[in-house]
DNA sequence: AACATAAATGTAAGCGCTTTCATTTGGTTT
DNA sequence: AAACCAAATGAAAGCGCTTACATTTATGTT
């Protein structure tokens, strides 16, 4: 591997000059620039990013912490981030936090120790206080899918409440009045926000929310299945169920069918997230779109703009969900 | 940020000694080890991985190149890799290749330039020759889901042919005789291997493979949909269709239903991969399991063993698929 | 007690770059 | 031609570590 020194030798200039043509900042005469460029080519020179990082105190890498590396939401998110960052020549170091506070802290420390210039965090378990504290250190980070008022500038989030509202309102507008709700773990902000939105829509239609029609799930198919069964067992009639994410909707559908009910004719099902799976399901799932890939891109833009001084379009911090109509809901 | 120098000062020892207690290799007296450890704690010292990399010429990072960051297969794969590597204190740099030769080469160069100690590659578009050539350089890498005889030791792959064989054989054993096939892009090794397996099973049952019953798709839902439609339009009767992956199976099911056919009663559908989606579908998809997460783990083990001299269990290079019975296939 | 030997520690030279500051070069001005 | 100034280039000091080698200290041997 050729070093900068060998290039400078071949080109007959000093190290500093080679560095200059690499980084393009200061002026170098056309003649020497050419000499150096040619030397770099003949030696097939690749600058060492490590050495560069050490000398410049900038690693050109950003750390990403997601709950899981698999799963449609995180996949789309990372995809958005990588695309954006890669074209800017930054690289992406990835770790998983597994929705566990210790594991998330571990992950954050790991990434910081790796000299990431900035972090993009999708953390669920770690406390607000921890993050507020973290923001006071010199470690730059942006939070995805979480909103903490004290550090609002570091947050990019979905208007989950409005999403929940939209989902339920769509059902209401189509004549449904008895609507069950399968939530995510309510200690998670997004889960409770979505549920609040649901309640809001109900009350807007003058319906008092029946706690018996709420079942708390785990954001997974199996949980949706169990919740649906539990709901059905209560023998309280309902014509529709809104699920706090698409996976649970899949489970709920399954459960309904296992009990001999047809979807959507006997019961309408509404999802949330609009992951790929939603269109694969049968019937295709009506759901609420969560533009997570765009949010990933935006997070990357924020970093490019705030950490690397690249110029980037305006940063939006709150994204709006949208209703996606498909086949799992009927009009009463 | 404290440096090693400050630690050495506080502990009253030399740089080298601090380095020794950090790296644990050579012997240090218990007394000084304690002094140093305490100094590190009071200073909240974190070694700079960058400086360490530069000095030791080892970055403790491994690069991963997958076709896409989203998608169930890649997600599971990365998840397996990260889990394994993270516990070993290595970190994971990720890039996407988008199934395009130039983009894949770019990605590889990018990762190499990033001083990754080794690479894990899931590449589809780049030629065998390129990879064979790459193996001759000093850059260590392992290929996932691809088999190249000349560098077999660098490959971890699925026995795709056997998978295709299993899928079709299962159909044959259940009385199906007229079996259509929706393949992936046949220039991709895995796609053609799976199809070969299909043919093999047919011929084992004394059935000549009818080319008219093959339709080449793109491994995506929409492709599966189109292929199924095309197949149906030929008016050649068939009682089952095997699809080269689960997404296409979802599309095919949809198409069949759009034409008024019931799955599995009018037509049986067999998938491949056993991604999460397969259990969410309705009816639940019978498919062939592709243990991609395990393969990811194995790739990581290979690297830990061969690059970082960690001791690891025996490396398997070829994984075997397994049939997964669910509800999308009936017995004739 | 004198010496040999091994263990513990220190010294200092890098690793491949960036960057500040000093020096040289070449073009203008008078 | 002397004087000046900006542009181009070079010299050298780090960045925070690792590591070969040198030195010191402790341990054991006779």
Automatic annotation (TrEMBL), chains A, B:
Domain HTH lacI-type span(s) in chain numbering: 2-56
Keyword set, alphabetical order: DNA-binding, Transcription, Transcription regulation
InterPro entries reported in the protein's UniProt record: HTH_LacI (IPR000843), LacI/GalR-like_sensor (IPR046335), Lambda_DNA-bd_dom_sf (IPR010982), Peripla_BP_I (IPR028082)
A Pfam family reported for this protein in Swiss-Prot or TrEMBL: LacI
PROSITE patterns (alphabetical): HTH_LACI_2
Name of the protein in its database record: HTH-type transcriptional regulator galS
Upper taxonomic lineage: Bacteria, Pseudomonadati, Pseudomonadota, Gammaproteobacteria, Alteromonadales
PANTHER family: HTH-TYPE TRANSCRIPTIONAL REGULATOR GALS (PTHR30146:SF109), LACI-RELATED TRANSCRIPTIONAL REPRESSOR (PTHR30146)
The keyword Lyase is assigned to this record: no
Gene Ontology terms for molecular function: DNA-binding transcription factor activity; transcription cis-regulatory region binding
CDD domains linked to this entry: HTH_LacI, PBP1_GalS-like
Record flagged with keyword Transcription regulation: yes
Domain of life, per lineage: Bacteria
